[in-house]
Amino acid sequence: MRYLLAALALLSAPVLAQPKSSPSSVSPGDSFLRQLSETRNFNLGRPGLGTITPDEKTVFFLRGQPPSGAQTLFAFDVATGQTREVLTPESLLKGAAETLTAEEKARRERMRMMASGFASFALSTDGERLRLSLSGRLYVVERASGKVTELKTGPGTIDPQFSPDGRQVAYVRDNDVYRVDLASNTESRVTRGGTPEKTHGLAEFLAQEEMGRFSGFWWSPDSKLLAYTESDTAGMEQFTIVDVMHPEAGAQRFPYPRAGKANAKVRLGLTPVTGGKTTWVDWDAARYPYLASVAWPAKGPLTLLVQNRLQTEEQVLAVDVKTGRTRVLLTEKDDAWLDLHPPFPEWLPDGSGFLWLTERNGAPEVELRNADGGLVRSLVKPDAGFRGLVRYLPAEDTLYFVGGPNPTERYLWRGVKGGAPTRVTSGGPALESARMSEQGHLTVLLTEGPTSMRRSYVLKADGTRVGELPSVAKEPPFQPRLEVRQVGRERFWASIVRPRDFKPGVKLPVLVDVYGGAIATSVHQSMAQSLMSQWMADQGFLVVKFDGRGTPLRGSTWLHAVKYNLGLVTLEDQVAALKALAAEVPEVDLQRAGIVGWSHGGYISALAAMERPDVFKAAVAGALVADWRDYDTHVSERLLGLPDEHPEAYDRSSLLTYAKQDKPIGRLLLIHGTADDNVYFFHTLKLSDALFRAGRPHELLPLSGYTHMVGDPLVSQRMWERVMRHFKEALAPLPGTAAR
């Protein structure tokens, strides 16, 4: 689910995060934009998915506390329904400022994590201790006594993890793995020789950014061994980021895996936690260089999932921990590409087999496999719309998952042997996520809908509500006028948000808010995801979203339609869907259409301005990929193949190809953070330079010092004001619909 949420964070323009400036520093302007920024899309103060204790008596959860936003630890008592504050960041920092290392900042960027205070916490396996991270320091809370102990580690700890026996905590510091013995509170080094170019225990860039693997080490079930990655970036290209506002600060250099170029060399080692000789795991890394996931279950083998570079083939491997040798449990192949689906493979508690997700039958299907990898049976069929595993209960032979056949909604389902899945909850439309206790008697359910913001409920196994994790969030000042429908012969999913003072029959300019990438859809039954759309609509526009080919949740054929042809297929479907919507909604003025997007959506928006100015008179393109040869290997090569083998695919999918043409262009505004280490700023500079040399007018708004996400409320406000001014000037809203 963490990977799913991380992917969903890419759906819209920059995530509104912890302010760099205080709320009082925001100058007078649009009050809603200020509120949206300062409350992080009105989610500040809403609990997330809690952690249920093994005895199912308590649910621990983090919640940001307005106005500071720092996340605080709370406990919900299942018997009484009461919530108490357990620990605050202020009580530990005692007035000191929170600080993070560059490595931890980069890791949080990859995880789309922008919270301050306690970024994460964990329970020991027996539930007796809590581990929290704050400002690079580690703390352990004894639940019985409430005693808080700061672990005596060096500064800058990353990715702390309890040992299965709960007596140790391991973490990465200074590019090596360390551990602390909790009884004596003493630190010892586990690995040696780690450097910035050859790290031990850290997930490399591609693992974090594209594979959903954020850890680089794993405990053995008996807490005596650690498996860890060694990531060697010595042969990689180095990209440079300079803070142009502070040239005296020098430059930062990052290894970056550009398409067709060298990746980090990753291998997996096994070592005693007391240190000593490393046993290196042996697999065909030349054929399968991507270490996509690692699992070391309580019972069952140390298990790897590895992929070939083109991601058309993958293997599940079992490791002999004494020798490092591996054996193949399962091989998957697909002519287009194979998506990764954490946490699969997922071993059963008794080690008798594992769960596996396959799309070989055209859509996600969950299988039960025996310990040798042989198929036992299918647990969730392809037509169920599986999107995330919640829990499999072997004793009941019951699988809980989130999903459903409608891609704009998501619910908690129960699947039993021999029967079709049934919904656990009722009502809707809604987007639900869930976490279930190991015994399956208690569930934390997150739910939101088109008229409600996220709420967190504690449920019994039958769906009966026990209580609610309380929110202290500010509620939005309005409810979006959101409508979701299907349009056109292809039945594109579409959403439309109308101005709150909408008058039937009055033509309005239309803005297409696009993402269009293979990792996430855009059309959801969600109030939270429609708030910005409503603000834009209230400036005198209809704001619409469409999910065309190349987006997930409508089967492999639909998803893989963009193979070797990024951009044009997606743009074609956006145009077709817009025209189909106009045929059904007479207020859509096709003569005044604009398009806006961020990241992959920025790429589509810029392409629309250059290739379809007959449809899109104006475009705003944020953090775009100009040329897929300059983006990372895992994405570019999955979609387009290797540049040397398919140069025509890269040419066809490059914005630089279309920038050089001598033809009209829609009014185009380019926006990009100068410190972006995902889609580097030079992408937008390359496109701007090509347009300039071709004599094609456009505008450029650099966001100095910002990454792929923009967190400062003032900068977010000014950026969106600039975006809407661009569209108002280009599309000329009708009289009487001025901005409010």
Structural description of this entry:
This protein has 740 residues and is of the alpha+beta class. The protein has a domain at 482-731: Rossmann fold (3-Layer(aba) Sandwich), CATH 3.40.50. An eight-stranded mixed sheet has the order 37-38-40-39-41-42-43-44. Strands 1, 2, 3, 4 and 5 form a five-stranded mixed sheet that branches. Strands 14, 15, 16, 19 and 20 form a five-stranded antiparallel sheet that branches.
**CATH level-3 fold name of the domain at 482-731:** Rossmann fold
Quaternary structure annotation: single chain
What would CATH call the homologous superfamily of the domain at 482-731?
A: Alpha/Beta hydrolase fold, catalytic domain
Radius of gyration, in angstroms, nearest whole number: 25 Å
CATH class of the domain at 482-731: Alpha Beta
Instruction: Count helical runs.
Output: 14
CATH structural architecture of the domain at 482-731 = 3-Layer(aba) Sandwich
Strand content bin? 25-35%
Fraction in helix: 10-25%
Distance N to C terminus: 38 Å
What is the 3D shape? globular
Number of strands: 44
Largest sheet: 8 strands, mixed
Unreliable residue runs: 1-29
Q: What strand line-up does the widest sheet have?
A: 37-38-40-39-41-42-43-44
Structural class by SSE content: alpha+beta
